[in-house]
Amino acid sequence: MNAFEILRFTKKYFPLVRPSNEDFEGYINNILDEYQVLVNESIELFDSEKFIDSGYIKLGREKFIDSFNFLTEAISAAITLYLNGFPNRAFEKLNHAMSKIQYEDKSIEYLGGATIVGNGSYKFYRIRESDSKHTLSRSELFHVPFSQRRKIHTKRYSIPGLPSLYLSDSIYVAWEELGRPKFDQIQAARFELDKNFSILSLTTEIYCKEDFLDTIINSSTINYGNEKTFSAYDRALQAVFMFPLILACSIKVNDNSDVFRPEYIVPQILLQWITMNSRYQGICYTTSHINFTNNNFEGNFRNYVIPSTQRDSDYCSKIGRLFKMTEPISAELVSLNEKTNIIQHASSQYENAKVKSVEIINGQKSVYTYTKFASLDEALSHLPATNIDFV
How many other C-beta atoms lie within 10 A of the C-beta of residue 196? Predict the structure, then answer.
């Protein structure tokens, strides 16, 4: 198999839902073992005649495979160490592997990553559930202050007690991440980048969405937004390399009432790694609350986590300098002000470029532009984003 064919093969693992009768360690190791054999035995993976423009192929099959096996085995070992009661050794194991495979060659990077240019064009959203009759302040829509870190629970990319800023591509994704709260009780703010934002990308679309992979295949080059251009086959090889790590971070939690969730082991280790790494400022990941084999969902459904690394006030000034944000607005107040004439509503020119359609009611495809989520997006689009001055 070549890289494109391997990526089509990974679709069979999605949605990443562990059978209730299978333990987490066995479930993930079964997939990793099968996938590792597939990659190692795929002779066509480095076919230099077919993909002559690939920098990875010029780098060499042996170096690629050795690094791939090293990372894959470190992921499995880290999970075992953690489950055996050695979380520190689990971090050391994965930290060593991530650091070793970061730069095998100055022109080629094994780890997925991108730089989003801070020119204000990229929009992020954050919501909070609140039954207050008053609009929340901007600081209340920022990360949990250090003075209240005792309130920070464990989540997929949340280390208890460590404040982080969580953002989404759309109001809809933020609503799903919050567990579908009552819509009239949410308040929202829009964030814009004021500086370039470097992320470790752990998104899953290329593995489970045929149209996304087809777009990659049909592209001659891929621009990562950081003035680097890779061949389409390099992008595919990078995705092949990263699948074990993304798999370990993307498995859906079986029971949200569980106190300990093994699905969070690797994501939380990676968040620790990010806080120590000067190359990345955050992690971009696809929501695990949506089954992307369902064709009713069209677009990008991504979240971003930026851990605090600079504690010189009640908020992280490093994160504060990275963004501008709007004043928060209440979904209830927006709904009181929205258009009621369906013809007027349908003629709205507003469109969230990242989301085309969603499935809110099982089996029904909804055009995102005509949902209340888009109405809140649109209302925020009219507000100015200003410097974060409370940090």
Answer: 14
Whether 60 is covered by a domain: the verdict is no
Structure tokens at 100: 């070793």
pLDDT value of position 373: 92
| Residue 390 structural domain | 112-391
Q: How many domains does the chain have?
A: 1
Task: State the average pLDDT for the chain.
Answer: 88
Question: Does 214 map to a domain?
Answer: yes
Contact status, residue 94 vs residue 142, Cβ threshold 8 Å: no
DSSP secondary structure letters along 254-304: S-TT-S--GGGHHHHHHHHHHHT-SS-SEEEEE-SSS-TTSTT-EE--EEE
Residue 207 pLDDT: 94
Helix axes 61-83, 24-41, angle to 10 degrees: 170
User: Does a structural domain hold residue 375?
Assistant: yes
pTM for this model (two decimals): 0.91
List, as one string, the DSSP characters of 329-352: EEHHHHHHHS---HHHHHT-----
